[in-house]
Amino acid sequence: MKISVVIPLYNKANYIVSCITSVLAQTYEDFEIIVVDDGSTDEGVDTLNFVCGSDPRLKVISQPNSGVSAARNRGMNEAQGEIIAFLDADDEWMLNHLENIAEAATAYPQAALIGAGYRRLGSKGYVAEVTIDCRGACLIKDYFRMAAHANFLTMSSSAVRRSIYEKLGGFAVGEPLGEDRAFYAKYALCYPVAYHSAISAIYHNEVTDGAMSTYKNNWPDKEPLLARQLREWRQDKNRSAALPASLDNYVANVLYEYIVIGVMAGQSSRAKVLLKDKFFFGRNLRRKAKALYFAICWLPEPVLRLCLRLSRSRWMQKKVTVRDGVIQRCIKRKSAR
Questions:
Q1: C-alpha distances in angstroms, 210 versus 42, 63, 121, 135, 206?
Q2: How many domains does the chain have?
Q3: In terms of domains, do 227 and 179 share one?
Q4: For residues 68 and 55, what is the distance between their CA atoms, to the nearest angstrom?
Q5: 142 occurs within a structural domain
Q6: Same structural domain, 182 and 51
Q7: Start-end of H helices in the chain
């Protein structure tokens, strides 16, 4: 089973070599690497070609800057493997990641979306390990119920079957936020999800242009993509009856997460607009949504952001959390990247 590794690259010269090196070191050897340079203005491509350009498994494609979704779609269109694994240019893999993905894909050929456990590295040595409660490869029965409480997939820990990509399509282009969650939902709604519980991907959340910068600079002017997708699915008579009961709660939790991080990134006024829409919030989130709305209205913004940061800090997290089959471990490492 050949695996195509798709890596979108945009101004990640400081990370791309370690990223590619982690792929070349995989214990699973039947793979190709497709790097899509999305109009980078730094020396990332030159560095990559100098260090790794002689490896025949590496293919570098350059295109004008079109966004990460367009870059991933271009890479998927060029892929030759049966499985397409995603890796962001500032992340990396442990030695057995592709082996774990191949094991799960082989064990569950009916699955279109495949994932593995991952380690999220934060600032000041904060580490979270996220996986699900199973041994080795397993099939997830209710993706939306489990994913509502913890994001056990990240782009650098996930893969899809190329044959299913040719049916369902790729990432939504031109969306400033949430294209990954919308992509997962589209696949999980139509096909089973396979997962390998071993921690084998490393998500570098401590980089300077991480999630907070994304939310600050790219907060959408329109309704978030995932909410629009749900509305479309509900209006589709052929699909609406088959929507799982857990889907609404999943969308509500994802959007609430967007709102909280948006407030922390200084987008309180736009977040308040979303909080007014009852469509987003089921009973389990209604109180939290109302409380956050009134906090935005009455608390000074610096105080509000400080409270939210403290509530989400590693000091407020349990060392081990298990909820709906998702395991999250919070640990401390000695040194940062």
A1: 18, 23, 11, 31, 7
A2: 2
A3: no
A4: 25
A5: yes
A6: yes
A7: 16-24, 44-52, 68-78, 97-107, 143-147, 162-168, 179-190, 211-218, 225-235, 237-240, 246-264, 268-275, 283-298, 301-312
Residue 97: which CATH number?
3.90.550.10
Distance of CA 193 to the CA centre of its chain: 15
Are residues 23 and 82 located together in one domain of the fold?
yes
Q: Are strands 193-204 and 113-121 parallel, antiparallel or unpaired?
A: parallel
Question: What's the domain range around 35?
Answer: 3-204
Report the C-alpha gap between 137 and 98 in whole angstroms: 13
Report yes or no: 131 and 117 within 8 Å, Cβ to Cβ.
yes
Dist. CA 179–CA 114, nearest whole Å: 17
End-to-end CA distance of the chain: 33
Distance CA(83)–CA(89), nearest Å, equals: 19
* Whether the model pTM is above 0.85: yes
- Pure H helices in 12-87: 16-24, 44-52, 68-78
299: tokens are 């608390």
pLDDT in tens, 224-253: 888 889 989 989 888 887 899 899 889 988
- For residues 253 and 126, membership in a common domain is answered with no
Place of tokens 């939790």: 253
Q: Determine the residue type at 181.
A: R
Taking only the tens place, the pLDDT of each residue in 9-22 is 999 999 999 999 99
Q: Are residues 167 and 215 in the same domain?
A: no
